[in-house]
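Journal club side-thread
Mid-discussion, someone asked how the predicted structure for our own chain would compare to the paper's figures. Pasting it here so we can look after the session.
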Amino acid sequence: MSAKNYAAKVFDTVLSIPGMSEPVKIDLKISRKNVLLLCHFIDRGVLLEKDEGSLMGSIAEEELAELKNVSQECLQKAGLVELNQKLLSFIEDVKV
């Protein structure tokens, strides 16, 4: 078994521990710069191709959607929704 597959199985096992689906409240204070970076990383991670041997391959669609919601909530609370949309439009223009 490759190290990638092994890591994915371990991660999947940890995610299946009882209580892991229970919501927790996190009081987090980070800079707006880090909010933008965190949201960018979440978006990039969600877009990764789901490969069975990768960690992303073991995450259910519902959990990915929840991560996207967390990302959007962080942007809203930081007042960065519009700025993030404009930055994403720059990225899309560069791809074309």
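Post-session note: The radius of gyration is 16 Å.
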